[in-house]
């Protein structure tokens, strides 16, 4: 089995790059399940329902969100109906939507996608460790599910790595999002869980994490509210990771994906 995860889609250039590239990636790499983080797709802040529909039409099986989940208010009724869009699992009880989605492949195999959000340098949240423990009391890798993929949306690499070690062997992969910078630590842990602290963003890297440079620089220099940040519109790099999965649900390999734009390319073989 092969799972494809594409990182934070930022603005129009990121959306257009993913929509045009994802069908080719699915075909050329023989992808079974494709997941996209869409929380920055709408002008850098949130996800609009029509944009989610376009990502699904391009081949996404599930879309994850994050700390910008509710920046577009239209997503609240949409997420109640469209179960393939998920927000962090450790949002407080009663929050709209869900933090997991269960996908059944044509051959009957089940793949569980979950998202949690970190607590270091982020908004106060329920414990992501306990949140996933509750899910894994019902879902067992290699027994009920052929693969379990977790998106850890957070700032701190230490928190992401600690989380991955805690669930090493219980999930297929823990892949980080949120910082918009692809890390070079992709590997399979001792227990068979694939890990990458951040898969990077799908957006224009001639920017400050996808946003226009002058406005972002001004905020750091003046330490005052400035103009609203806007995504840049240059050529985007599509960033993500490919996870090759063994028959028992553990990861065989984690391979970076980088196509187009300014970053050095990385394209896994089929």
What keyword list fits this structure?
270 residues, alpha/beta, Purple Acid Phosphatase, chain A, domain 2, 6-stranded mixed beta sheet, 12 strands, globular
Largest sheet: 6 strands, mixed
- How much is the average pLDDT? 96
User: Unreliable segments (pLDDT under 50, ≥5 consecutive)?
Assistant: none
CATH-defined topology = Purple Acid Phosphatase, chain A, domain 2
Structural class: alpha/beta
Q: Supply the number of structural domains.
A: 1
Give a written overview of the molecule.
The chain has 270 residues and is of the alpha/beta class. The chain has a single domain (2-204, 235-259), classed as 4-Layer Sandwich (Purple Acid Phosphatase, chain A, domain 2). 24% of the residues lie in helices and 23% in strands. It is built from 6 helices and 12 strands. It has helices spanning 11-29, 49-58, 75-81, 128-136, 157-166, 213-222, and strands at 2-6, 33-37, 62-64, 85-86, 100-104, 110-117, 147-153, 173-177, 187-188, 194-196, 238-245, 251-259. A 6-stranded mixed sheet has the order 4-3-2-1-11-12. The mean pLDDT is 96. Keywords: Metal-binding. GO terms for molecular function: 2',3'-cyclic-nucleotide 3'-phosphodiesterase activity; metal ion binding. InterPro entries: Metallo-depent_PP-like, YmdB-like. Fe cation 2 binds at residues 39, 67, 153, 178.
């Amino acid at each position: 089995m092969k799972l494809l995860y594409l990182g934070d889609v930022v603005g129009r250039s990121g959306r257009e790059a993913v929509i045009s590239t994802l069908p080719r990636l699915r075909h050329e790499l023989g992808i079974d399940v494709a997941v996209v983080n869409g929380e920055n797709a709408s002008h850098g802040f949130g996800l609009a329902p029509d944009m989610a529909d376009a990502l699904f039409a391009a081949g996404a099986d599930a879309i994850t969100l994050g700390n910008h989940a509710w920046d577009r208010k239209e997503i609240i009724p949409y997420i109640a109906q469209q179960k393939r869009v998920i927000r962090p699992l450790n949002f407080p009880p009663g929050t709209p939507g869900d933090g997991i989605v269960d996908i059944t492949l044509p051959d009957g195999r089940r793949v569980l996608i979950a998202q949690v959000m970190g607590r270091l340098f982020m908004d106060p949240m329920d414990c992501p460790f306990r949140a996933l423990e509750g899910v894994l009391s019902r879902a067992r890798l290699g027994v009920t599910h052929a693969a379990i993929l977790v998106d850890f949306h957070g700032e701190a690499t230490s928190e992401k790595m600690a989380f991955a070690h805690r669930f090493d062997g219980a999930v297929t992969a823990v892949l980080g999002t949120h910082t918009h910078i692809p890390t070079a630590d992709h590997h399979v842990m001792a227990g068979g869980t694939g890990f990458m602290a951040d898969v990077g963003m799908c957006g224009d890297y001639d920017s400050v994490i996808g946003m226009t440079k002058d406005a972002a620089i001004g905020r750091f220099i003046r330490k005052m509210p400035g103009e609203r940040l806007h995504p840049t519109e240059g050529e985007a790099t599509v960033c993500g990771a490919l996870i090759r999965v063994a028959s028992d649900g553990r990861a065989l390999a984690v391979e970076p994906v980088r196509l187009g734009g300014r970053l050095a390319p990385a394209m896994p073989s089929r």
